[in-house]
Amino acid sequence: MWCTMEYIDDVFLSVLRSKIFKNRDALSPDYIPEVLPHRESQIRRLGGILAHALKGSKPGNVFIYGLTGTGKTAVTKFVLRRLTLKARELNVAVKYAYINCRQSDTPYRVLADIAEALGIRVPFTGLSIAEVYRRILRGLNEYKGVFIIVLDELDSLIKRKGDDILYKLLRVNEEGIEVKVSLICITNDVKLLEILDPRVRSSLGEEEIIFPPYNALELRDILLFRAKEAFNDGVLEEDVIPLCAALAAKEHGDARRALDLLRVAGEIAERENSDKVTCEHVKKAYSEIEKNTTLEVVKSLPLQAKIVLHAILLLEEKNVKPITTGHIYSVYTNLCKVIGVSCLTQRRISDIISQLDTLGLISAEIVSRGRYGRTRVVKINVDRKILVEALKDWRSITH
DNA sequence: CGTCCACAGGAATGACGGGCGG
DNA sequence: CCGCCCGTCATTCCTGTGGACG
What we know:
Helix content: 40-55%
Distance between the termini: 46 Å
CATH class of the largest domain: Alpha Beta
Structural class: alpha/beta
CATH topology of the largest domain: Rossmann fold
Oligomer: single chain
Number of strands: 8
Strand content: 5-15%
Strand order of the largest sheet: 2-3-4-1-5
């Protein structure tokens, strides 16, 4: 009893008076800092466009393009926050809805989120899309002002569900309503604009802002700023930040990755009761992050996807030269028989394979082998040992 | 140079559960 | 409570296609 209490108290205390962290939240992906280094021009562009809202007129629609972790979301939120503050100061009606299309990945949920931002209560499900749309129009009619809709990670929505929602949202302005609705679309796929309906495209492409990836030097500046807020003075060894920046720069200059790396390195240092964060901690953090994410992804996979993944793993172990859809499917059907699970069509497996690809677990490249047909060649994309661990339960049954 | 393989991937459809309006 | 409409998963049927083979 005593021991437990003391132990618990120790845990509390060690967190409360952390030797390492001053404010760990400053490294979280949701944190919007006061300074966004190396994004001045994008902030100025977006701010200039949206400033029209302060005069009560409709800002042009904006299309924002940039790879993950290039600050698109942070810049957008940052500018919108300043804008609404300024609007309140000037007593102008400006509202915005921020929607992450990866989380709200159906037309219904997008509309529901918009409704919610307008203060309209909408059930999780049960209404027709048209009904939600009608309610939003009604809400907008009462509101009378500038309304900005941000659609973050729009590509995941469009690719799966098409662009009719965009069409609807763009048409709001023509419904005979006094409200001005502007769209900000954020995507990491350049080709997205090309996929869209021409009318939608020209309307969305009114303004275009590009976010290039950060290089290692820029990442270093970002980390320096954040580290000042997040860590106690002098706990970072000199090379820690450059190392985090360099590792993240190798992976497309993703600032979120760099920040994660730094945060986890700090957590490891703390766990080890170290006074300093060292490069060793960063390296540990690097592999820990990779392991955790893949483990989590694999475990949360639906049953059939796990079986498919297992089939791929078996083929790779048997050293099958090119792993193709056909191979996977035949191994998969065998596995299903062994386990006693109903097996799906090849069509479905094809979809599951591409899902595994977009999750990053495998890379499936479409290859044409002439007379021998056109197929996907699959290669495992993560540490095999981690996959084996994640699929442990299966292996005992099947071998 | 045409064939034809081994699939990719779109469209239509259905089964099913969740959840609301009435 | 029923009927309706969602979203998800899965099937069926289908057309499309790059390039080695003959």
